[in-house]
Amino acid sequence: MKNYKKLFLLGFGFFGISIVWPLYNAYIPIFLKDFSLSSTSIGFVMTIDNIFAIFMLPLIGVLSDQTRTRLGRRMPYILIGAPLGALFFSLIPFAREMHLLWFFMLNIIFMNFFMALFRSPVIALMPDITPPKYRSQANGIINFMGGLGALLAYFAGKPLYDKNYALPFWLGALIMLIALMLVVVFIKEDEKYKIKEDKKKKIGNVFSKSFSELKVNLKEVFLSKEKSLLMILLSILFWFIGYNALETFFTSYAKFRIGISESTGAFILGFFSLTFMLFSIPAGFIGAKIGRKKTMTIGLSIVILISILSIASVNMINNTSLVTRLLFIYFALGGIGWGMVNVNSLPTVVDMTTEEKLGGYTGLYYFFSMSANIIAPPLAGFFIDILGYDSLLYFSIASFFVATITLQFVRRGDVK
């Protein structure tokens, strides 16, 4: 595969995005406890980004397919969304200091809106510049960069947070902005996606075309006789329900169930991100070698196993220090499994369509993954309120298991 340098440069887009969300998911639930909210209420608040995403990402993905500007079809969304998303992310600590729930919520809403504005276009650039047979490997490189961003967020975030809880947010916003601007400067879109004089009159129809295309894509999901697209999207839905529940509440689980600090809980998640990052590129090559579905099935099995081991250790070992060390090991192994799942999922989806609809199908991927992220936090929070923090891992295991079952019914989208 050629253009490795170009893919690593594109990976800075995913790198920047992946710095923000681990910090957001690790610390916003803790901040919300300042307002004496229940876990269920916190879970609902943590779905705001996903509510925006479920409505905006499929539409923005299709809209960017139809967009034609001098910069291309994806770049305008990055240039608007990234600076404003970074601004409102950096203001989160100030909003916490104000100790006004409405102000804190308003800041979060604006941040999530602008983050959703550019996510689909950034991710859609990968299949834009990569032939179908190399997309697993390319997505491995992109996810490697994303894992590097998450790793930086968790590992650098802990000492910064312990020194001043505002520092990870300020530095994270700055790094995200710089990373996304590198994408804008160094990734050049194909000339055919840049506006031409004889096509200017068609720009006014972009929105109507986008809505029409979105409806067609959704019909292909639910009404097609061949159900591979529906099955892979359902698999994505369920495994992200399990993953997002853990990501949202693990720092709370660490603090209130195990008895360790939230920053140490985030540090454990950092080991998950470390091995995910290191294994992303090999996971793409494994998917290309033995098949994407088989690779994802193995990965889900690993994630289920480490979740079971985590439950056993927390409940059977009374030594908090030993449990913490074991969780570092389990989550490091889990990152390997998650890499096998996550790296091969998007290429499976986009290889079921044509070049003209890559943004739209990228939007479908995010429609289902973000739907999971809307379902998971309040549902997991509800179980925590009723059954305690032990229910968190059981909830995730059940979701990963269902995803493994639906994945077996996927017949298309594998490496040809």
TrEMBL record:
Membrane as UniProt keyword: yes
One Gene Ontology MF term: transmembrane transporter activity
Annotated Major facilitator superfamily (MFS) profile domain residues: 6-416
SUPFAM superfamilies linked to this entry: MFS general substrate transporter
Pfam entry (one): MFS_1
Signal sequence, start to end: none
InterPro entries listed in its UniProt record: MFS, MFS_dom, MFS_trans_sf
Keyword presence, S-adenosyl-L-methionine: no
Keywords on record: Membrane, Transmembrane, Transmembrane helix
Residue spans crossing the bilayer: 7-24, 44-63, 75-94, 100-118, 138-157, 169-187, 228-246, 266-286, 298-317, 323-343, 364-386, 392-410
Organism domain of life: Bacteria
Protein name: MFS family permease
